TrEMBL record:
Gene3D superfamilies: 3.40.50.11390, 3.40.50.11400
Alphabetized InterPro entries for the sequence: DUF3798, Peripla_BP_I
Taxonomic source organism: Tepidimicrobium xylanilyticum
Keywords attached to this entry: Signal
Alphabetical list of SUPFAM superfamilies matching this protein: Periplasmic binding protein-like I
Pfam families given in the database record: DUF3798 (PF12683)
Protein name per its UniProtKB record: DUF3798 domain-containing protein
Cited PROSITE patterns: PROKAR_LIPOPROTEIN (PS51257)
Length: 389
């Protein structure tokens, strides 16, 4: 009997010891798992995003966008600039981009530059740091960018040949006048946009009128072109009436076009570069403080007020901000969202519905995204939604 009791006690002791050991192992595993989760959480908390833009003197909008985001997220965004003499210092530019990948906390690298030749940097980043998300807006071949860059974005300048006439029609236009000059029409994107405008106008029942101005690149510069517009626009409005939309393919044209629109009441659905800072501040004598130069809500409100005073409400339109400002900021916000939420670059991110909704949420303006083609899911062309003054 005593032996049975002793054996029973020993069994309890062994069972208790086994359970205790199992509990200890489980607690150890839980502690290790918690430690690993803490490390991963710390990595997500302490991460960096690199944004690479041209210098202020080379491309003001992209530079200011990068600088503003670095100020907004000082512990996250690191802003560097490409060499001033980009074409002769291409290797330096590539080295500068690669230097960002040397930082172990760097989780995304974004290059926003109206230049080409930087793709080798992305190839090397993919080999060296495949964990880094790469995003770019550059002028390299889209097919190559889709191959070497995780996500690419570009403004859809050509598709605007369709969207602008449609908007002009909605704003009441019956005639669509297109001003340009030979050296500009020699550019493929300008020519394609014009051809699409003509085609779309025909489909919509708008009369399309093409007028060639003096060429500022071969003649007396912009002055002769602007003087021609100053004299010709009143003639065309007298002929076709105020329900005419005028589009010029060249930025300096709009100092005249918008000024004449305020006098003659014709429609300007969109500028060649649709931004509230092109021509409007000058023509309307807007008083914009230095600290408000990037406050597009305020600038748009000032334009709307002046438009109303001129009896032109609903006759002028554009984009709420320059695409060169929008794109870098959007790319940074997107990278930050992906990293903070531990997301994969799959169909949940790489689709036009998500991108449009995300743009509206974080940028306050929606963009219409379209994939480059049906076989490409990581290169998107975009058109920003319109603002009507």
């Amino acid at each position: 009997m005593i032996r049975k009791i002793t054996a029973l006690i020993l069994s309890f002791i062994m069972l208790f010891s086994l359970v205790a050991c199992q509990n200890t192992d489980t607690e150890k595993e839980a502690a290790e798992s918690l430690s690993e989760d803490s490390v991963e959480a710390e990595k997500v908390k302490n991460f960096k995003i690199g944004i690479v833009t041209p210098t202020l003197s080379t491309s003001e909008d992209e530079f200011r966008a990068g600088a503003e985001m670095a100020e907004k997220y000082p512990d996250v965004v690191k802003h560097i600039t490409l060499p001033e003499n980009f074409n002769t210092e291409l290797e330096t530019g590539i080295s500068q981009i690669l230097s960002l990948a040397d930082d172990s906390e760097m989780k995304a690298i974004i290059v926003n530059s109206g230049q080409s030749g930087l793709l080798p940097a992305f190839e090397q980043i993919r080999e060296k740091r495949p964990d880094i998300i790469t995003i770019a807006t550059m002028l390299d071949e889209p097919e190559l960018m889709a191959k070497y860059v995780d996500i690419s974005f570009a403004t859809d300048w050509v598709r605007r040949g369709e969207t602008i006439p449609k908007k002009a029609k909605e704003m009441g236009a019956k005639t669509f006048i297109h001003y340009s000059f030979p050296t500009h029409l020699a550019k493929e994107s300008v020519a394609q946009r014009k051809e699409m405008m003509e085609k779309t106008c025909k489909e919509l029942g708008l009369e399309f009128v093409e007028i060639i101005t003096p060429d500022p690149q071969t003649g007396d510069g912009p002055a002769a072109m602007q003087q021609f517009l100053r004299e010709d626009i009143p003639r065309q409005i007298a002929k076709y009436g105020s329900d005419t939309n005028i589009f010029g393919s060249n930025c300096p044209m709009y100092d005249v076009i918008i000024d004449e629109a305020l006098k003659l009441k014709f429609i300007v659905a969109e500028q060649c570069c649709p931004t509230p800072t092109q021509a409007y501040p000058t023509v309307m004598n807007l008083e914009i403080d230095a600290e408000d130069l990037g406050n597009y809500d305020k600038i748009n409100a000032l334009i709307a007020e002046k438009t109303k005073e001129a009896g032109m409400t609903g006759r002028l339109s554009g984009w709420a901000m320059p695409s060169q400002i929008y794109v870098p900021k959007f790319e940074i916000e997107l990278a930050k969202y992906i990293i903070e939420n531990g997301l994969e670059l799959n169909e949940d991110i790489l689709n036009v519905e998500f991108l449009g909704d995300f743009s509206e949420e974080v940028m306050g303006t929606r963009a219409d995204f379209r994939a480059l083609d049906e076989d490409t899911d990581n290169y998107y062309l975009l058109v920003l939604e319109s603002i009507y003054y």
